[in-house]
Amino acid sequence: MRGPARQERPAEAALPIGAEKTARVRAMFDTIAPRYDLVNRLMTFGLDQRWRRTTVAALGLPADSLVLDLACGTGDLSRLGYRAGYRMVGADLSAGMLAANEQPAPLVEADGACLPFPDGTFDGMVCGYALRNFTDLGATLTEAARVLRPGGRLAVLEVDAPSSRVLRAGYDIWFTKAVPVLGGALSDREAYRYLPRSVAYLPAAPALRRLLLDAGYSGVGIRPLAGGLSQLVLATRTGTP
Q1: d(CA 141, CA 131)
Q2: What is the pLDDT of residues 136-176, one digit of tens each?
Q3: Helix ranges (DSSP H) in 33-136
Q4: Residue 175 gets which letter from DSSP?
Q5: Are the C-beta atoms of residues 139 and 207 closer than 8 Å to each other?
Q6: Which of 94, 183, 81 is nearest to 134 (CA)?
Q7: What is the pLDDT of residue 6?
Q8: Phi, psi at 17, each rounded to 5°
Q9: Domain with 144 in it: what CATH number?
């Protein structure tokens, strides 16, 4: 006798691109904004705060420098920037995230590929866990370079994948299996199923370095944090300040 037919798992839907991605990212972050910070702390065991401090410190700018927090979300990097003595401005695609942002920085709702600031406005820029959420990463990096002054500093915090086989196995289980369950219990399950999959948008280090060079940066450095659980990307706007 033949046993019961095995049910195939449904294939994952293709990741959105273009205008569909922009709309989906905006709606998703509007939805998860109220508990975004809580889920971040739990899913990184609080390590994200250490990595954010490292990111702000890596700017190495004088006090009173004007710094843009791109894709600022609820304002974690802006708060740390204020503590470092910087004047902060926040920009984000999601109105929901901006509504949940309690930092005193001026806030602007804007797409990263079309920022409402004059050329060379900022001395520095930080961006946390957002590269893979931009619809056109190349255009966004070019626009970021436009609003940075020559010699301005860019510091980006982003996810990574550990090089250690053992660490990578645990990371994969946690990030792809446990995080969606945790996010579903506390916030929105579909959003936290999508976020681990969205890592596929992120270029490998050589391609990301090339995008930054083509966008108008020099001195590009990419280094792993905590064995590759996250990565820090640093670059300097070309030209003489």
Answers
A1: 9
A2: 999 999 999 999 999 999 999 999 988 777 777 877 777 78
A3: 36-43, 47-59, 76-83, 95-100
A4: I
A5: no
A6: 94
A7: 38
A8: -135, 170
A9: 3.40.50.150
| Contacts with 47 (C-beta within 8 Å, 6 or more apart), sequence order | 226, 229, 230
Instruction: Please give the helix or strand (H or E) that residue 234 lies within, else none.
Output: strand 230-237
Q: Judge whether 121 lies within some domain.
A: yes
Asked if residue 150 lies in contact with residue 239, where contact means CB atoms within 8 angstroms, the answer is yes
CA distances from 42 to 39, 49, 126, 182 (A): 5, 11, 23, 8
Distance CA 185, CA 131 (A): 26
Tokens of 52: 């954010």
Whether residue 221 lies inside any domain: the answer is yes
Determine, yes or no, domain membership for 8: no
- H/E stretch holding 95 reads helix 95-100
How many domains in the chain?
Answer: 1
**For tokens 């708060």, what's the residue?**
79
Task: Scan for tokens 């520095």, then name that residue.
Answer: 124
pLDDT digits (tens, 9 = 90+) for 10-45: 445 789 999 999 999 999 999 999 988 888 888 887
Instruction: Show the domain range for 212.
Output: 18-159+203-237
pLDDT tens readout for residues 197-216: 999 999 999 999 999 999 99
Q: Is residue 61 part of a domain?
A: yes
Q: Which residues pair with 88 in a beta bridge?
A: 67
